[in-house]
Amino acid sequence: GRIPAGSVSNEIVHHMDWLPTFAAAAGNPNVKQQLLGGQRLGSRSYKVHLDGYNILPMLTGQTDESPRKEIFYFSDDGDLTALRYDDWKVIFLEQRAEATFQAWREPFVPLRTPLLINLRRDPYERGLITSNTYDDWFIDRAYLLLPAGDYVARFLATFQEYPPRQKPGSFSIGDATEMLVPPGS
C-alpha cells in the first residue's frame, strides 16, 4: 500500500467519488469530463454530470488534498437538506423526529435560517441541544453562510444542462394515487 499505517486525513470523500476513482485506476482519468460532453459506451450514449471526484491522486500519495470540498445531503424525496464544506455543515431542512421509524414518517422542517455546525469541534452535532449560547455562536459565524450559498448556486446551475434523470421514489400514498390518474384528466 501507499498510505502509511496510522495515517489520519480530515479530507472530504463521498461514496460518489468511487466511480471516477476506479475508472482512473483502470486507466481512464477523464471519464467525468467525457460524460459531460457525451460519451458512447457499448450500444448507448450518455451525457451526464457525475457528481464524483477522482480521489486516486490522494489515495496514492501524490497529494494530501481531496478534490472534493463539499457534500450535499438530500432526503429520500430528493430535497436538499444540508451542505458540508470544509469543517462546516449547514442545515437547511431539519428532521425533528427522535429516531426510530418516526424519522421516516415525519416530514423535514424547512428552516427560515439555516443551522450551522462545526463538525470538527462537534462531530455528533449536539451543540444545539447542549449549549445555551448557540445563537450567539451562530451570529458570530453567520458569514460562513455566504460560501454555502455559492456552493449551492453552483450545484443548482448544473441542473440547467443536466436535469434530474428520474423522480425520487416515495412512500407517500399521494404519489401512488397520482400514478393511477391518466395524464390529462
Could you explain the architecture of this structure?
Helices cover 32% and strands 19% of the residues. With 185 residues, the protein is of the alpha+beta class. The chain folds into 2 domains: 8-68, no CATH class; 69-163, Arylsulfatase, C-terminal domain (2-Layer Sandwich). The strands form 2 sheets. A 4-stranded antiparallel beta sheet has the order 3-4-5-6, covered by helices on one side. It has a two-stranded antiparallel ribbon with strand order 1-2.
Comma- or semicolon-separated keywords:
185 residues, alpha+beta, Arylsulfatase, C-terminal domain, 8 helices, 6 strands, 32% helix, globular
Summarize the structure.
The chain has 185 residues and is of the alpha+beta class. It has helices at 18-25, 31-37, 56-59, 102-105, 127-130, 134-140, 145-161, 173-180; strands at residues 39-41, 44-46, 70-74, 80-85, 88-95, 108-118. The strands form 2 sheets. The chain has a 4-stranded antiparallel beta sheet, covered by helices on one side.
Query: How much helical structure, as a percent, in the residues?
Result: 25-40%
DSSP strand tally: 6
Number of helices: 8
Terminal Cα separation, in Å? 62 Å
> How does the overall form come out from the CA principal axes?
globular
Low-confidence stretches: none
Count of structural domains = 2
List the secondary-structure elements in sequence, H or E. Answer: HHEEHEEEHEHHHH
Mean pLDDT across the residues is 91
Supply the helix-strand structural class: alpha+beta
Specify the biggest β-sheet. Answer: 4 strands, antiparallel
CATH topology of the largest domain: Arylsulfatase, C-terminal domain
Major beta sheet, strand line-up: 3-4-5-6
Q: What percent of residues are in strands?
A: 15-25%
Rg over CA atoms, rounded to whole Å, is 20 Å
CATH architecture label name of the largest domain: 2-Layer Sandwich
User: Which CATH top level class of the largest domain fits?
Assistant: Alpha Beta
